């Protein structure tokens, strides 16, 4: 142990050529720099501490879109409403319920169906786009955590009419998008609900994981080996 310490500080021991202290410091600085690069230095990311489930994000987006349609159609608390979803899918039932629940809070009553009466406001809604995407946000480096940017988008088309005559109150398409950055290890957690619309493929490994990372490791190893075995007089 004593001999090893003397080697580090640049003194001589019998039969062993040594490295001067200044070269150790310089080499160590280079090694630490390479190590920092291997850990992945990147711009700060806005990472969700406790990311919501993708299904819950869709539910929130649905409520926001329903609220927008309610304002556009001029629906009031005195109105009775019906809600019909067109070309929907079984996996989107939670979106239908979220939409109806939001309308219920802003009107006298709501029913899922197609009843028409003079005092009834009818919502005819069609999901035109549900999309989840994951993109690389940070490679994480050699020892860091890889993060992915998640975007959840929902687009709904709505036609709002009043009474049996179908007096048009509103017709149009609206879209909302939610974005955050999450640890790639939590993707399975946020997609835990078995609904196909909430799932999306993860992005392929980035440039660091494929090429730069191994090169940095080799370079750092080469510097270390050079420092250990170079003979200095």
Present the secondary structure layout.
Elements: H1 2-9, H2 21-38, H3 54-73, E1 80-85, H4 93-105, E2 109-112, E3 120-138, E4 147-162, E5 167-183, H5 187-190, H6 207-229
Explain this structure:
By secondary structure, the chain is an alpha/beta fold. The chain has two domains: 2-38 and 212-229, no CATH class; 54-202, Double Stranded RNA Binding Domain (2-Layer Sandwich). The chain is built from six helices and five strands. It has helices spanning 2-9, 21-38, 54-73, 93-105, 187-190, 207-229; strands at residues 80-85, 109-112, 120-138, 147-162, 167-183. Strands 2-1-3-4-5 form a five-stranded mixed beta sheet, with helices on one face. A hairpin with an 8-residue loop joins strand 3 and strand 4. Helix 3 (54-73) crosses helix 4 (93-105). The chain is rod-shaped, with a radius of gyration of 30 Å. Residues 4-9 and 37-45 have low confidence and may be disordered.
Quick recap:
It contains 6 helices and 5 strands; from the N terminus they run H-H-H-E-H-E-E-E-E-H-H.
Q: Notable features of this structure?
A:
alpha/beta; rod-shaped; 233 residues; 2 domains; 6 helices; five-stranded mixed sheet
Task: Give the number of helices.
Answer: 6
* Major sheet size, sense and barrel closure: 5 strands, mixed
Mean pLDDT: 77
CATH names the topology of the largest domain as Double Stranded RNA Binding Domain
What percent strand? 25-35%
Query: What is the name of the CATH architecture of the largest domain?
Result: 2-Layer Sandwich
**What is the distance, rounded to the nearest whole angstrom, between the alpha carbons of the first and last residues?**
22 Å
User: How would the global form be characterised?
Assistant: rod-shaped
Computed structural class: alpha/beta
Instruction: State Rg.
Output: 30 Å
Overall number of domains: 2
SSE order in H/E notation? HHHEHEEEEHH
Total number of β-strand segments? 5
Largest sheet, spatial ordering of strands: 2-1-3-4-5
Instruction: Give the C-level CATH assignment of the largest domain.
Output: Alpha Beta
* Helix percent band: 25-40%
Any low-confidence stretches, pLDDT <50, length ≥5? 4-9, 37-45
